[in-house]
Amino acid sequence: MKTKSIETIKKPETVLIKPVKGWVPLNLKDLWVYRELIFFLTWRDLKVRYKQSVLGVLWAILKPVMTMVVFTIFFGNFAKIPSDGVPYPIFSYTAALPWEFFAAALSVSARSMLASGGMVSKIYFPRIIVPLSSVMANLVDFLIAFVILIGMMIFYQITPTINMLWLPAFLLLAMVTALGVGLWFSALLVMYRDINYLLPFITQLWMFISPVVYPSSMVPEKWRFLYSLNPMAGVIEGFRWALLGTQQSISGGMIAISSGIALFILISGLFFFRRMERIFADMI
Amino acid sequence: MSNLAIKVNDIGKKYNIFSEVNRYQTLREKIVDTIRSPLKSLLHPTGSESFWALRNISFEVERGLVMGVIGKNGAGKSTLLKILSRVVEPTEGSVEIRGRVGSLLEVGTGFHPELTGRENVYLNGAILGMRRAEIDKKFDEIVAFSEIGQFIDTPVKRYSSGMYMRLAFAVSAHLEPEILIVDEVLAVGDAEFQKKCLGKMSDVAGEGRTVLFVSHNMSAVTRLTKECIILEHGKMTMRGPSHEAVDYYLSHDYEKGGERRWQAEEIPADAEPFKPVAMRVLNSKGQVVDSIRSVDPMTIEIEYTLQRPIIGLRVGIYLMTMHGEFVFTSFDTDDPDKFNQHAERKGGNYISRCAVPADMLNEGRFVIGVNASVFRVKRYFQDANAVVFNVNPTGAPGMHWPEARQGVTRPRLGWEIVER
User: Fold this and answer.
1) Which residues in chain A are closer than 8 Å to B128, comparing Cβ atoms?
2) Which region among A99-113, A200-214, A248-262 has the lowest average model confidence (pLDDT)?
3) Contact B83 A17 (CB under 8 A)
């Protein structure tokens, strides 16, 4: 009945539990030990999302496509916003892709800690996994929607250049930003629940300070530097440059600044999250 | 540390009462508070009042020991377990833990109703800290243990609560932790499930792993654990061999139970003129207790008021096990002489006392019901679940064998062994 397997006697690890004052070390090693949990939670998020909705995977495509259609009609056709010489639909879709990814990842990861309250108050695991896997799950949506972009590039006969190799770097920049901001908000949301109402508003404002519906070349030269402090400006312009070959109105140096800012948000977010982590179980 | 599984050094856990009542603030409130009284807000970042759920707790648990943690509700048992399982951080002190900690209070954590049984096994396993390969290896065993069979690919939202519980438990039971934490108080589920919990615990202990067992069931504690610690108001008041600890605990009667008082609104109008006041379980010293030793006699008393005389009244008790089997029914006028003597009970305040002899009940939890009626005329009052009490087997016949004895009663019978 009971299979008594010959277990390898490995020395059990000793864990020291004690209160930590001030800023807590990140303890990324622990994250590595629990790497499979990141996968499983990502997979659960996706599975549940697609199982519960009739349209399933189509949602991942529908959202950016609808965004593009509305933007093209109102901003492209009616408002005649310039699009750096490429057709407005693909101009806006190339931006809608990373933007939708960022906005969805931010909103899901920010609420993730509260949503997993049951787990958090019962079991130990590195809490960072919760917002992290929310971001990862949205990455899959992004990849699905990306297929449409390839179709549009074929339709508009846009030949990809060698610049395309930079695309993963810009995607990473978007992930870093989403996770960084998501970490800040998910920890804050546990303490101050009214941030929940603030979040959609912040996301909306953020979209308008990012070049989603307009090219950043519209932004006056003297404001460019300030403008590029927004990491998502770098991400979106980077996407257009890598895929559509548009003129870079944000220089490489500015992209570097964007990346630096994104990294700063992520690292400060990690530390803030870790610092707040110990009171999560008490608060939730 | 070589031979220790757990080493607790003077830990304490402080909670803010503020955060207990109103667990979270809104940012708006925080901002308003800061503007109103900037200094106060700076000096006292969170609520002012706090209490120690746990303080000055130090103990060591050797590897392979099965240790009980006892104490009444609110004594800090759950807080201690949460600290040991790293869910909450102690406010002071430290804990050293050697090996993986699994706990049967996490049963079903992270289960998602939309996912199938199979998917949930993997997900739950990962949450509990199992490797994918490990789950792969044990998957068939888990399914067999849970008796889910072909429903393993059905979303768990279609499971009965029993199936859900069995599957969830099967995953936890296969975690094979070096240290297992069992909190019986939190272990929801039917008697069958609880039995499985305890069974798994004995298995784990038999394999030389360390077990911490938290329970209100003193008989289970004495049977399953070697040593116990007692928590009282967040302090550790005793550590010792389980029999001594349980004795100490029971004799100090930390659990205020063993008494049922009826409020006016709980008494139906047709009970008139019978008015129940209280029912109590008393030990031999006349103290109200909710735990009694099998080897001690006990008294069950019913206090009531008659607003008018009743002819032919009988007041009595039912004794039942927690599974609802009747052990006996007895009335205060079962004796024909007594019945004649109290043929008419006048208005006034009464107590009917029933002496239950020693060496009668086996260990376990029992329920006493009350009945006041006139045979074939009227039932004035009945409460089938008035009082619950525990029977502790310490000192009962056959206790030198640490096994659960079948049967509801545990009489001390006369045996002789003759050679012929």
Assistant:
1) 123
2) A248-262
3) yes
Which CATH class name applies to B4-9+54-252? Answer: alpha beta
Do the Cβ atoms of B89 and A118 come within 8 Å? no
Angstrom distance (rounded) from CA B209 to CA B206 = 7
Least confident of A58-67, A123-132, B9-18, B301-310: B9-18
- Dihedral Cα A137, A139, A142, A146, nearest 10 deg: -130
Assess if CATH 2.70.50.60 describes domain B259-392.
yes
Does B85 contact A18 at a Cβ distance shorter than 8 Å?
A: no
Identify whether the C-beta of residue B387 lies closer than 8 Å to the C-beta of residue B320: no
CB contact under 8 A, B26 and A52: no
Check CB contact under 8 Å for B110 and A52.
Answer: no
pLDDT band per the 50, 70, 90 thresholds, residue B106? low
pLDDT at res. A148? 92
Give the span between the Cα atoms of B246 and B260, in whole angstroms: 24
- Distance, in angstroms, between B38 CA and closest chain A CA? 19
CA distance A271 to chain B (A): 17
Listed ranges A3-7, B138-142, B394-398; the one with the highest mean pLDDT: B138-142
Question: What is the average pLDDT score of chain B?
Answer: 83
Q: Would you call B126 and A40 a contact, using CB atoms and an 8 Å cutoff? A: yes
pLDDT tens profile B13-48 = 988 754 434 455 667 776 776 666 655 544 445 445
Strand B210-214 relative to strand B66-70: parallel, antiparallel, unpaired?
parallel
Q: What is the DSSP letter of B38?
A: H
**pLDDT interval class at B182 (50, 70, 90):** confident
Smallest Cβ–Cβ distance between A15 and the set B82, B97, B141 belongs to B97
CB contact under 8 A, B86 and A124: yes
Rounded-to-integer distance, Cα A145 and Cα A101, Å? 10
Q: Is the peptide bond before A19 cis (omega within 30 degrees of 0)?
A: no
Res B40: pLDDT:
53
- A145-187 pLDDT, tens digit per residue, is 999 999 999 999 888 888 889 999 999 999 999 999 999 999 9
Q: How much is the pLDDT for A10?
A: 43
Choose the closest CB to A3 out of B92, B119, B141: B141
Q: Which residues pair with B92 in a beta bridge?
A: B12
Q: What are the C-alpha distances in Å from B371 to residues B274, B312, B361, B382? A: 11, 14, 21, 4
The answer to which of A47-61, A80-94, A127-141, B86-100 has the lowest mean pLDDT is A47-61
Chain B CA closest to residue A123: B87
Residues of chain A with Cβ-Cβ distance to B97 below 8 Å are 14-17
User: What is the domain partition of chain B in residue ranges?
Assistant: 4-9+54-252, 259-392
Beta carbons of B361 and B307 less than 8 angstroms apart: no
Q: Which residues of A touch B (CB under 8 A)?
A: 2-3, 12-20, 34, 36-37, 39-41, 43-44, 47-48, 51-52, 118-125, 188, 190-195, 198, 278, 281-283
